[in-house]
Here is the input.
Amino acid sequence: MTDTVIRSTGSPAGGPVVQLVDVSKVFGGSAGRVEALSAIDLSIASGEFVSLIGPSGCGKSTLLRIVGDLIPATDGTVTVNGKPARDARLDRDYGMVFQAPVLFDWRTVQKNVELPLEILRRPKPEREAKAQAMLELVELGSFADHRPWQLSGGMQQRVAIARALALDPAILLMDEPFGALDEMTRERMNLELLRIWDRTGTTVIFVTHSIPEAVFLSTRVVVMSARPGRITDVIEIDLPRDRNVETREMDRYFELVTRVREALRSGEGGSADASASARVRAEGLSA
Amino acid sequence: MSVAVTTPSGRSAAARIGSGLRDWVPAAAVLVGFLVVWQLVVSIFQIKQFILPGPIAIAEAWQEDLPALWAATTYTLSEIITGLVLGVSAGLLVGVLTARFATARESLMPFAIAANSVPILAFAPVFNNWFGVANPLSKAMVAAVLCFFPVMINTVRGLTSVQPAALELMRSYAAGQLEVFRRVRVPNALPFIFTALRLSTTLATIGAIVGEYFAAPRSSLGQYIATASGFLNFERSWAAIVFAAAIGIGLYVLVVALERLVMPWYGSRDEVT
Here is the structure.
C-alpha cells in the first residue's frame, strides 16, 4: 500500500532540501525597525521533520514564510531543492498549512483539495482521482461532497493537509496547524500527521508553541529566542520512528521534553516573563 | 458537530420548493388576517375614505382604473430597471477597478462613502432639468446614482476583505492575479455584492417614484399617486401604491432567487452551524 503513494522527489544529489545561510529579516523602515530574524543558519535534509519552537514574536512563522518565499529575506540566502526559494515556489515545491484551515465555503471538500490542481490546469479526471486519493489518505474519503463548514475543526485541518499534499510537494510548511484545536484532537492529529509523513516521505517544517507536540513529531527541534529571532539550540529527537500513543509515556520522551523546555528557558536569557506569556498563549490556544 | 447532517445537494429540488411553500403559509395567513382586520376597522369605525380607504374600496379603484394603472406601472418599472442596470453595472465596474489599484482605493473610497450618505434624492429636480422631465432617463439616473454607491462600496469591500492566509495559500501555488481574482476574490465578494443588490432594488424603486413626484409624464406611478391624492381620490393613490409595493417586493424576491442560484452554499450554511 505504501508503494502506491508517490514519494516526493528529494533534493538532487543528496544535498539538503532546505539550506538557510545567514538569513536575517528586518521589518519596517528606518524609524520603526524591528529585527525579526538574525543570523539564521539551518540545513534540513530530505525526509526530515523539523519543528521550530520559541516564544511569541521569536520569528518562527516569519522564518517559515521566508523558506516558502511568501515574504523575502532581508539578507542571506535561502536555497530549496538546490534553487532559490522563489524558483522553488514557482515550481510548486511547497505545500502550505496554516493555523486556520483556509478552506473555501463555495467549494465542496473535494473541490477544495482540487484547487491547486485546477490552478495547474491538470485534466479533470486526474484532478478528481488525486483529490480522492488525498482525502483517503487523511481518512475523509466519504466527506468529499460535504461543505467545509459541515466538518469539525480537526476534520477541516485534515482537508487542508490533503490539499497541501495534492501537488506532491517536496516540502510541507505547517504554521501552527493544530494550534486552534483542543488537546484531544491535537494528539490525534499528531498521530495522523506522523502516519501521513511516513507514507509520503515529505520533508516537513512545523511551527508550534507546544513542546510535547514538537518532541512527539520531530526528528529535530529547532529552539528559537526572541528579539531578534535567533536559533539558540537544535535538539535531535532520537525516539524510534514508529511513534504511537505509548511514545508519550517513554522515559526518553520526558527527558527530551525537559531538554527542550530548558533550552527554551536558557534561550530567554533570564527574561522569564516572555516565555511565561508564550506559555499562556499556547495554553490559551489549546483551551 | 462532528458529522454533518445533510448536504445541500442531498435535498431534492421538489423538497426544497415544498419546504419553501410551507415557509410561506404563515406569512400569507398574516397578510390575509391583516387585510380582514383593516377592512373591519374601516367599516366598524366608519373611517372616512380620504383618511384610510378599506381594502375593498382600494380593490374597486384598482379594477376601475386598471388600464391607466398598468400603463403607469410599466412606465415606472422600465425606469427602475434601466436605473438598476446602469447603476449596478457602473458600481461593479468601478468597484472592481477601485479594488484592483491600491491608490484608487485610498483616494476614492472616502469620497464614495461620503457620497453614499448624501441624500441623492435631493438631486431629482436637477436630474429632471438635465435629462428632461418627459425623458424616463431623468428618473432612471436618480435610481442609478442611488444604486451605484452601495454596489461600488460593497464590491470593493468584498474583493479586498479576503483572509490574508488565503492570499498566502494562492501565492504558494504561484497563482497569478487573475487566478486569485477569479477563484478567491470574486466568490468572497458575492455575499457583499448581493447585499448591495437587495438594497439597490429598494433604492431604485424609491428613487424612480419620488423622482416622479417632482415632475413626470402623467402616466407614471409617481404622478398617478400625486394626481389622485390631489383630487382626494385616495383609493386610487392606494391602488397605485399597491403596484409600487409589488414592484419593490418583486425585484427583491428576484434578487434573492438569483442569490440562491449563484451562491447555493451561502444560505444553507446557517442551517448547519
Summary: Chain A touches chain B at residues 65, 68, 70, 89-90, 92, 94-96, 98-100, 102, 104-106, 115-116, 118-120, 143, 145-147, 149-152, 155, 167, 173 (CB under 8 Å). The radius of gyration of chain A is 19 Å.
